[in-house]
Amino acid sequence: MARSRALSEYTEAEDKSMRLGFLLIAAGLLSLLGLGCCWLRPALQERGGGGSANCTVLAVRQLGERFACTFSCGAACRGTARYPCLQVLVRTSRSAAPALLHEDERQLRTNPKCSYIPPCARDDQENSENVTYKQKYWKEKVGSQPFTCYFNQHLRPDDVMLKRTHDETVLLHCFLWPLVTFLVGVLIVVLTICAKSLAIRAEAIKKKKH
Q1: What is the pLDDT of residue 92?
Q2: pTM assigned to the model
Q3: Which PANTHER family does the entry link to (predicted)?
């Protein structure tokens, strides 16, 4: 009675392990598929026609135009403020034509006319001060010193980015964690099958001895 109960508990644990393994395998495959569509494709598009270059600041200026941004002052408190448009024009080592610098691809999509979007504050004056500080940074601290920038001749030939949105670290994580999940699931299934096989062999040896 006790022996059959033990065998029953072992079978239940084995089934749970198999279900967990197959669940991890499915989760890993679905994650690879989902992240591949959401991250890998735009990353390859961003990197496919582009590369890195040395940039040098040509001009730093504020336009008279102001743009709206949305600030949050609590769970149910939101409002709209405005900030001046800062443009940083640079020359790249790949082309003599001036290009407009942007923080990254996300900022470029949000406001393609400006080089910097400040953290949206409730006070317009605070937004203006943040933009002025960034303007002084590019004029005084960077000046004529060359720095690395990124471009994409196919998508945005007249714009360059200070940093990439999809860098090597993001691409690594897109594959690393789903792959680890998939391999852990495979390992659980394999170990469960091996344990079952050893248990069957051990039971067969015991029957032969008796």
Answers
A1: 86
A2: 0.59
A3: CALCIUM-ACTIVATED POTASSIUM CHANNEL SUBUNIT BETA, CALCIUM-ACTIVATED POTASSIUM CHANNEL SUBUNIT BETA-4
Sort strands 98-102 and 156-161 into parallel, antiparallel or unpaired.
Answer: parallel
Per residue in 133-157, pLDDT (tens digit) is: 999 999 988 888 899 888 776 667 7
Is residue 154 classed as helix, strand or coil in its secondary structure?
coil
DSSP 76-135: TEEEEEEEEEEEEEEEESS-SSEEEEES-HHHHHH-TT-SB-PPP-SSHHHHHHHHHHHH
Give how far Cα 170 sits from Cα of 14, 47, 74, 164, Å.
Answer: 36, 13, 31, 10
Pairing of the two strands 147-152 and 50-74: antiparallel
In angstroms, the CA 40 to CA 33 distance is 10
- Strand-pairing partners, residue 1, are none
d(Cα 140, Cα 163) in Å, to the nearest integer?
21
Q: Is 25 left (phi over 0), alpha (psi -120 to 50) or beta?
A: alpha
State the alpha helices, DSSP H only, in 36-89. 41-48
